[in-house]
C-alpha cells in the first residue's frame, strides 16, 4: 500500500495527535463489530439489549449477552493495530486515544492515555447506590447480580442508547479533537453520536484527518485521507512509511 505525501508528512510533523477508534480495530482480534453483516446487531437487536428499559424488563437476558461478550474478550489478544497505536503514543509529544470500545484491548496493548467513551465491559455498578461491583458471578440461582452493599440490581458499566457519556470524558475527548494537528479515525462506522462528531470538530479546527476503515463510512467524504483496508495491516505500514 502506498500513502500520500500529505499523510506521511502529517504523521512526521504532528505534535498533538488524537485518535478515535471503534469496533473495527478489535475485529482482527476476534471481537465482533456491531453493524457488519456478521456483527452483534445482526443477531441481537440494540433496542432489546442496549438500553436501560431493556435491562429493567429482562436483566437476565442482558447479563447473558454481556457475559458472552466478556468471555470473548477474555479469550482474545490485542492485534497489530492496537500495538501500533501504543507504539505511536510512545513516540509522540502529546497523544490522546479516544475509544468507543468497551473491550479494554488498548490498555492491554500498552496504550496509556485512553478515554473510554462508552464504558468498560469488565466493570459493573449498582443502579441504586452506584457502588462499583466488578466481581460478577452468574449462576442458575443468581442469573443476574445483586449489589453486595444494598441488594440493588447490578448493571454493566456500559453507556447505553439515550444515556450520557461518563462525566468529563467526552469533554476531554472534544478538547483533544479540537486542539490536535492530526486526527486518526479507525474502525468506526461513525454513526453514533456524540463520538461521531469528534472527527468533524478536529477537521473544523484545522487538523489533518485520516480515516482507516474496511469500507467507506458516513464521514469518508469529509476527511483528508480515507484509507480502505484492515487497521491491523494499514497502521503498522503507515507508521513504517513515516519512519516510526
Ligand atoms: C474495520 C475492520 C478492520 C471492521 N479494520 N475497519 C439522531 C441523531 C443523532 C443522535 C441521535 C439520534 N437519535 C438518537 C441519538 C443519540 C444516540 C445515537 O447516536 N444514535 C444513533 C445510532 C442515531 N446516542 C446516544 O444515545 C449516546 N448518548 C447521548 O447522546 O447522550 C445524550 C442524550 C442523553 C439522553 C437523551 C438525549 C441525549 C450514547 C451512545 C452509546 C452507544 N453505545 C453503544 C453500545 C452499547 C452496548 C454495548 O456495547 O454493549 O456503543 S452503540 C454501539 O455503537 C457501541 C459502539 O461503541 C458504537 C459505535 O459503533 P462502532 O464502533 O462504530 O462499530 P460499528 O460496528 O458500527 O462499525 C465498525 C466499522 O469497522 C465498520 O465500518 C466496519 O467496516 C469497520 N471494520 N473490521 C478496519 N479489521
Ligand atoms: Zn447498591
What does this structure look like?
The chain has 244 residues and is an alpha/beta fold. The chain contains 11 helices and 8 strands. It has helices at residues 5-13, 24-27, 40-43, 46-49, 52-57, 59-75, 80-90, 105-109, 169-178, 198-204, 231-241; strands at residues 16-21, 94-99, 114-116, 119-126, 154-158, 182-186, 208-213, 225-228. The strands form 2 sheets. The protein has a 6-stranded parallel sheet, with helices on both faces. α8 links the parallel β2 and β3. 38% of the residues are buried. The model has no long low-confidence stretch (mean pLDDT 95). The structure holds ligand BJW and zinc ion.
List the helices and strands and how they pair.
Blueprint: H1 5-13, E1 16-21, H2 24-27, H3 40-43, H4 46-49, H5 52-57, H6 59-75, H7 80-90, E2 94-99, H8 105-109, E3 114-116, E4 119-126, E5 154-158, H9 169-178, E6 182-186, H10 198-204, E7 208-213, E8 225-228, H11 231-241
Parallel strand pairs: 1-2, 1-6, 2-3, 6-7, 7-8
Antiparallel strand pairs: 4-5
Helix pairs in contact: 7-11, 9-10
The chain binds ligand BJW and zinc ion.
Order of helices and strands: HEHHHHHHEHEEEHEHEEH
Please report the distance between the alpha carbons of the first and last residues: 17 Å
Low-confidence region ranges: none
* Small ligands present: ligand BJW, zinc ion
Amount of beta strand: 15-25%
Describe the main β-sheet briefly: 6 strands, parallel
Query: Number of DSSP strands?
Result: 8
Mean pLDDT value: 95
